[in-house]
Amino acid sequence: MKSIYRVFLLALISIFVSCEAPKAPAPLVNPYFSMEALSAAESGIDFQNTLNYQPDLNIVEYLYYYNGGGVAVGDINNDGWEDLYFSANQLPDRLYLNQGGMKFQDISESAGLLQEASWSNGVTMEDVNNDGLLDIYVSKNGRFNSLQAHNLLYLNNGDLTFTEVSEQYGLDFSGFSTQAAFLDYDLDGDLDIYLLNHNIHSVRSYGSITKRSEQDSLAGDRFYENQLAENGKFVEVTQQAGIYSSPLGYGLAIRVADINNDGWSDIYIGNDFHENDYIYLNNKNGSFTESSKSLVNHTTRFTMGVDMADMNNDGRLDIFTTDMMPYDAEVFLKSGGEDSDKISQIKDRYGFEAQLARNHLQVNNGNDTFVDLALMTETYATDWSWGVLLADFDNDAKNDIFIPNGIVKRPNDLDYINYLSGINFTAFEQSKQDDLRRQIIAEMPTLKIPNLLFRNEGDLNFSKLSNAFMGTPGYSTGAAYSDLDNDGDLDLIVNNINQPAQIFENKLENKGATQLLLKGNSTHPITNGTKVTLFAEGKKYFSEYQSTKGFQSSSTHLLHFGVPHLSVDSVQVVWPDGKLQRLSQLNAARMEVQRKPEGTQVTQQHSGSSYSLSVLPFKHIENSYFDYEKEQLIPELLSTEGPTLLQADFNGDGIYDLFLGGAKAQPSAILLGSKKGDFKNLYQPAFEIDRNFEDIAVASIDIDRDGDLDLYVGSGGNTVISPDNSYEDRIYVNNGKGLFTRAPISLPQTHTGTVAIADFDNDGIQDYFVGSRSITGAYGLTPRSFIIKNDQGRAMKILIKEQFGMLTDSAWVDLNNDGFLDLVLVGDWMPITVLINQQGKGFENQTANYGLQHTQGLWNTVAFFDFDQNGFLDIIAGNVGENFKWKTNSESPVTLYLDDFDENQQVDPIIFYPFFGSQVPFVSKDKLAQQLPIVKKRFPAYKDFSTVSDITAVVGKAPETILQIKELKELRSMLFLNDGNQFKGVPLPKFAQQSTIEDIAVNPEDGTVYFVGNTKSYVVELGMMQANPGGELRDFDPQRLQFTTTLPLPLPHGTLGREIRRLDNGDLVVATNNDFAYLLKQKPNIK
What is the pLDDT of residues 717-742, one digit of tens each? Predict the structure, then answer.
């Protein structure tokens, strides 16, 4: 009965497990790398990690049964050739001696390795006792059913033999161990150990984050301090060190590095399932603080591998973690994916941080924060990916990405989950349990897939996935790299399941590289954590030495730079204790760097900002509402778009004041400015009365022509069906001192997205444009917007009422220099729209005439300046950016189909988007079936649904018969240069494409662009966007058509910037969603 419960539990858990792997694509020869797989006859490596079914040890009983083994690399006899260790699950581990020329000898038995078959996972080679010889530590699954073992420490005897001393050294832990990493966490000159363990599903492994304080004797991580000098063993100090050792942990990946660049080793832990990854920052006092929330915005959901390297040659370590998102459309559509939005809410309430089921490339900002750019780099979906390795495999001085792939049996196929749910477990007698297990396993899908090697093309660009495949498809898990033949390039070693292990010999013709072997001295023997910077031909290249990386493996003990040694001007070595040593020249491609007795102490520094940050006396508090509970197919939340921000002198003292819009159930605010440059809140009774409106848009106008500025406030929120009183726009009249009362004027009851006020007919009186955002309950349909003429202040006349789009911003500007203001509109699923003023008598849509007809995007904001100085105003517009799951262009757009497909009097918005060469529906089969019952009948199985590639297959209607179709063709934030007749589009710098741009302000004197961004308004399937809260674009070069300077704004990490204004004194005001408003005061001597 116990085993039946495990099977049933696995079925439930698998529903929330990520995606399955795709069919093997062709070709499998990587066009950028010359990696040749050696046969066992060629190399002498005859190891194979073969798994055989056992009644008490199989994928049904043990969820990590197919995680495979690892690889360790190291020169065990100091002969200059690195040797190999392979760990096995049901067979003895093997140790191979490198004899040169890619020939290896199995010395496992003569070396004294234990020959019984026990379940080995990770393996690491390190000099544990500082005797100059590499030892071997093996992590075991030692306490599961019939498995009875403990972790092993093989001490190197110096004669190609080893002695197992784990018990003597206090390292014979018996539990669910994954991997060990060695570090000198207290800088006392010896290596301490972080032992990574993993849980198996049990009642104890679920709950809120309060369970992190619990201890688990088998699955909890352990930390051991090296006290060999004091008492001859390692001592466990897990709790004292601040390390979680709880049943929540599903540790699969570990990487040690100085993450915050303070000179002390930190630790990244990758957890599977619901538990977040941990980032332990070293407190420099023998303890760590888990700090992931402050460093990253979100992490991988099923983290399996992790590595760190400088991926953009900026001298900082970036972090890559792997997950299980498929790239094959058929596999993707029949597999589980992201958490549902409701599950995400539950996890948030339980205290967990955000997770996304895809790879993450966390790029280092240099200010103790990281931003995930995997979507921008298109490295986010590599399937069932184990250890990632970041290294320069083509010697071009840029680190590439190797990812081993595959798993033998896949318990997360959705048809398989349905199969499990149909089994009547109680009908099987105890004697037939083994037959049931075998039957269940036989039903699990099996698919071999290739490994991936992405070429780094510079500036965070990588080769396309279609050009990254390499090797024979299979089931690869642990992997490592080393220059095994000492020819100047890195080779790959891969541990496979049920297939021979592989060595990929690098046949690179460009052998120009620099390899450094770090050697400590008697006083400071430790080299782990040493930082090395090469200076060559005006560039610098950075690396930090640690060997444990990827998944269950450790790589070369050499630092490899793809830079010819003859071009190296100098080398800077910063040893673990912060002492600096310089080398002026290198006389060989491979050199041993011996630590000198003395050195200069290095002080770690962070770069500053041009602004100081202070908090304004207003905090936006977003109301709790989830649009998708009423509109299941909606891709974004339109109820979370505030606050709006306006700067104006409301009390006539010559100093700018601020209006900040409140969320629903929160009053808006007036902040009066002072000569000191600060702001104070002026209580507004009228705003308190109207607190149940959500203020989304605002503009100033002297409505009563008394010489002071009044307010037109637009309402939004998307919480009720419009028209409704809660959407009514309002006018507030100023008493001249900044105190406002609501005017008794009836205004439109529409979900307002933008308001723009100006005198478009040159009669001396300001007119209105009121742009609508959406039709609540009918996402995608276009609402009506209004151009309103102010008739000499006597009446408001609607000049135009038209469906322009789902508007987010608008502006009156004279684009054609005819003396009349034209109207530019932006919004969702629409092009940048230009309405040319016909001498104040009307407007003509000239979007196509200006060459903007193919700019359909998810535009948030628009601003203007003559950047190329040709006398015509150019357009700069903020879009969703390139760090987004949807990828699009004119030939392959994202498409929104709108119709009442099931004839229930409700519009059904169905989206298809490009996905690695295919078109796929945006939402899952299950979610579509909830909205359209016909889907369940049309596609009984997920396998049937997985072949869907167009709307007709889903709803049975041809596109030409569908009510309305919209497209997205441009998702980049753009600059459009105006030559007087047409606009030429130029993408903004990559820095500005890392996230959404929500608002833009331009310095009218020099054209400096200030922007804010980030949003959590997209559903979980698209994910939150928090990679860039704001920045500056300076020094536009009209010849090169680009901004030559980009700078971040010093906003808090992950800030959801909504609007930004530049004050006359150069200070900036930023309104944020669900947070405080900020004042960025310009520091002295900064223009």
Answer: 988 887 888 999 999 999 999 999 99
